[in-house]
Amino acid sequence: MMSPGFTGSPLDRADRVRNDAEAYGALLADWRARVLGLDGLDPRVSDAGGLHWHSMAELDGSEELILLGLSDDKPHFVAVVEATGDAFRSPAIWRALSMLPAEDAAIYGTARSLIEWHNNHRFCGRCGHATLLFRAGWGRKCGNCAKEHFPRTDPVVIMLAEYEGKALVGRQSRFPPGNYSALAGFLEPGESMEEAVRREIHEEAGVTCGAVRYVTSQPWPFGGSQLMMACIADAQGDALVLDTTEIEDAMWVTKEEARAALEGASDRRFNAPPPFAIAHSLLKYWVSQ
Amino acid sequence: MMSPGFTGSPLDRADRVRNDAEAYGALLADWRARVLGLDGLDPRVSDAGGLHWHSMAELDGSEELILLGLSDDKPHFVAVVEATGDAFRSPAIWRALSMLPAEDAAIYGTARSLIEWHNNHRFCGRCGHATLLFRAGWGRKCGNCAKEHFPRTDPVVIMLAEYEGKALVGRQSRFPPGNYSALAGFLEPGESMEEAVRREIHEEAGVTCGAVRYVTSQPWPFGGSQLMMACIADAQGDALVLDTTEIEDAMWVTKEEARAALEGASDRRFNAPPPFAIAHSLLKYWVSQ
């Protein structure tokens, strides 16, 4: 079965110790504890090509810490750094992602999502007062009204409409030239996954769809924390009416064309998304059906 | 195919007009506009058994408004009210939900999720300053740092572990006596749906699972806004180790026992969740397989 990018973290999240002050204190004092090495929000890649870990001794003690989890009973932490800008568009992050083993990419993604969340929840949305980290980094609590805030993950639908053996792919103007991917959009309050898939395809491409089949999912750690839910939807026609504020172009492709794109064939009609993106896994699954 | 509760809203969300000041102004001035009638956060049920709608004339003009969508080109709004307490546990809401047609329950759920979100995002989580409603109620923007905040939906996994033809159901201490449901829990940053399903079953019941099959989803409008993703997971054994801080009891049930519960048979072993809960749809699907 498929293993989409950013899945497969080997860490035990150890939910049970997050609220247990004594057990958590023991982890913080554990001399075997490892802290994830970051360069801003980017991963530091070790000489061996994996994530770089250092000891607690390298911290100055003022950092907010997040318990990422345990591996062989060894605690793994990351310190909250100030998150600014949009590092995903930087060449460094792409280079690092192409080098990291899948398990390390999953750990990095979790850390990055949590760091960004802490940066954006330093104040209580309900009363405006400062919040404090609690639950071993898996929450923040308001110092004034005591409201508890938990790390946010936004569900996103990402999908291929399918019609007479062809699949619909589109491109945003910010994509590199020739790149096409599955359509995608945020799920909104009050709709199911299936309803969000149909709404997004209709909004972006003017295509009406019937049945929706879920394929697989992945966490996506850029621009926050997203749960990408990949689906295939049965289109009821192939006429396109594009919302050009969302997508610059869209086209129906055959399985042969998608296969050539995934393989990077020299005569490919378009460039496929990179392997760590679930759109890649989704296209691969569709081609194999 | 199944239609889980709170799905099937007939409203066109009309995303295209949310950012179009002129088009949105025309909707606000439309004499045919309807505003959802609420009693606090509870729905007001009309004599005909549906949602109650009133005209814009009944507002005092100071309300924050959300555009729920269009039906026959008629705009449908809801005003943000102060949301307090936990109305879901009130008998009034259960009574209303048992009366409302499915389409009305879907509209109500959307409205309720958005109202709660506005109440909890009156201040910017990044800088602590006051936010202002924008995008026709589908966002808030910080008056200081200009950060845009969008309605939150939390992905939740809800699932049956399956072993040798039996399914695992559990109960929380707050459930009515005899009630059992599917296990459930919030998906965390850095995990896929499938990983969250396996983690939650292991945390709550000590059962290790392999393959996970997605079944269906529903939006859930109580205690915020959740996307319930219903799955069935293949258990690798049936020995239970319960986390009694999460669930009070759990048991393996046969399809005959689940069917009797869904039908409310007098000799049923347990009480099933109500029809508008996706756990009901999930049990029904499992029994039919």
TrEMBL record, chains A, B:
Keywords: Hydrolase, Magnesium, Metal-binding, NAD. InterPro entries: NAD-cap_RNA_hydrolase_NudC (IPR050241), NADH_PPase-like_N (IPR015375), NudC-like_C (IPR049734), NUDIX_hydrolase-like_dom_sf (IPR015797), NUDIX_hydrolase_CS (IPR020084), NUDIX_hydrolase_dom (IPR000086), Znr_NADH_PPase (IPR015376). GO terms for cellular component: cytosol. One of its GO terms (biological process) is NADP+ catabolic process. This is NAD(+) diphosphatase. Pfam families: NUDIX (PF00293), NUDIX-like (PF09296), Zn_ribbon_NUD (PF09297). Residues 151-278 form the Nudix hydrolase domain. GO terms for molecular function: metal ion binding; NADH pyrophosphatase activity. Its cofactor is Mg(2+); Zn(2+). It catalyses: a 5'-end NAD(+)-phospho-ribonucleoside in mRNA + H2O = a 5'-end phospho-adenosine-phospho-ribonucleoside in mRNA + beta-nicotinamide D-ribonucleotide + 2 H(+). Belongs to the Nudix hydrolase family. NudC subfamily. Its EC number is 3.6.1.22.
